[in-house]
Amino acid sequence: FFTLVLSVVFLRRHIAAFQWSAVCLNLLGTVVVGLASVLGPTHPVQAPNPLLGAVLVISGLFLAAVQGVLEEKFVGQYKVPALQAVGWEGVWGLGMIIVVMAIGYYIPVASQPTGRAADFIDASLMISNNWRL
């Protein structure tokens, strides 16, 4: 849904009525499933905060839509080869995850074995000690 709306607004795409109806039907189904998980427990093991989970999922979908539309606009406007755009996406993604892991290292979380939200040092040691990772 977000990608469709952002494509119309920023890329000036014209979407056919059947495409709008398909996306809206998909959105309706997603809302029904989301509401069912928030309003009524159907499983003996419930998430502690299903509303927060739904908000995080929707936020992630919105950010993925923004990324996709910006990437398409960037590739089209600057005539960047697709593989180069994918490479830069990886570089920026790596940079962002390093920043997030560094911030998470200083956030205390008692329920984690290391006591931190994200332990970059421990993760690096695990990766270097196991060739499969």
Keywords:
mainly alpha; 5 helices; flat; 133 residues
Give an account of the 3D structure.
The protein has 133 residues and is mainly α. The chain contains five helices and no strands. The protein has helices at 2-10, 17-39, 50-78, 82-105, 120-129. Helix 1 runs parallel beside helix 3 (50-78). The protein is flat, with a radius of gyration of 20 Å. It starts with a helix and ends with a helix.
Strand tally is 0
Order of helices and strands: HHHHH
In round numbers, the mean pLDDT is 84
Distance from first to last alpha carbon:
35 Å
- Note the beta-strand portion: under 5%
Low-pLDDT residue spans: none
Category from helices, strands and their pairing: mainly alpha
Rg, rounded, reads 20 Å
In DSSP terms (H or I, runs of 4 or more residues), the helix count works out at 5
Q: Please outline the major beta sheet.
A: none
Q: What's the overall geometry?
A: flat
Helix percentage: over 70%
